[in-house]
Amino acid sequence: MKRDGATTRSAAARTGPAIVVDGLTKRFGERTAFADVTFDVAYGEVFGFLGPNGAGKTTTVRTLGTLLAPTSGNATVAGLPLTEANGVEIRRRIAVMPESPGLYLRLSVAENLEFFAGLYELDDRRARIERALRAVNLLDRASDPCRALSKGLRQRVGLARALLSDPEILFLDEPTSGLDPLAARDVHDLIDGMRRQGVTIFLTTHRLAEAEALCDRVGIMNTTLRTIGRPDELREQLFAKTLQIATRDPLTDPDAVFGGLPGVEGWHDGAAAAGGAAYVLTVTDAELAAPAVARAVVGAGADLLALSPSRHSLEDVYLQLIDEDVEARTR
Ligand SMILES: Nc1ncnc2c1ncn2[C@@H]1O[C@H](COP(=O)(O)OP(=O)(O)OP(=O)(O)O)[C@@H](O)[C@H]1O
Ligand SMILES: [Mg+2]
Prior knowledge:
4-stranded antiparallel β-sheet
């Protein structure tokens, strides 16, 4: 899809990363919202920002969105150093969809968007509003007062508002919070569409499956940045690779069966179904180990019922990291 104004501007600005955060800290008096956070986001990337309640996600978004001044550290947003003097120009290149959409409930959907388009001093307002409403599938509700909309529909108006300015970087703070699965899927499709247009997306969410499906990379926050990487990299860093095996009856001598097989480092009992047996093998390389393991089990005269590599989700990674934090705090 052809976009106006912003496309040209973003193409010109696309040298270096979209966002650079370097040792950024924000304190509110005694309370530290986030501390010494360092990461980059590339242009065109969908970056997920995860963390428990109070981890500092929204405060980071508000800081990078120029709504709050950092206490210390540096950042660059859309190619511009994050300073008070650059505030207006940065805001021209980005859009922030906040946790709560902040709409005027007595105004209609279209009137809200007209109001914000005016506030942002946008040209060609009618066409922009129509495009934004079409993008979030709300054209037919344009003249409804916002107070008459459900929470999910208001959320979509908030998204339409963020789309008005054709931003280079879109900050979405929990865009699917409180949405039903279908509405959430619509938002996912919308994010995918924005990605295809080259918009950089910074997404906070508590839905880990959402982050896993949508994000090129994720950062896991808990006041400090705990880890950052592609979901599959994080899984590999945190979890040993394993093969799960189920047999109809227990093996007589598992050590003899699994010992010395290529790629197999060790084994322990797994959670077996009633009457059966299960084993978990730690492996260096599942593709190398699996055929050898299958042959060895069958060769030992056992009925092999299942053999599958471990699958850890981003949720496993998240829970592991955040649990470590909770444990560290109670020590
Ligand atoms: N204006 C403020 N004044 C004082 N403390 C604040 C302010 N805004 C945020 N905080 C504190 O900063 C910390 C981080 O809050 P933040 O809203 O960034 O968390 P979050 O990760 O977005 O959490 P959630 O998942 O609940 O939205 C919290 O302890 C919060 O109470
Ligand atoms: Mg928040």
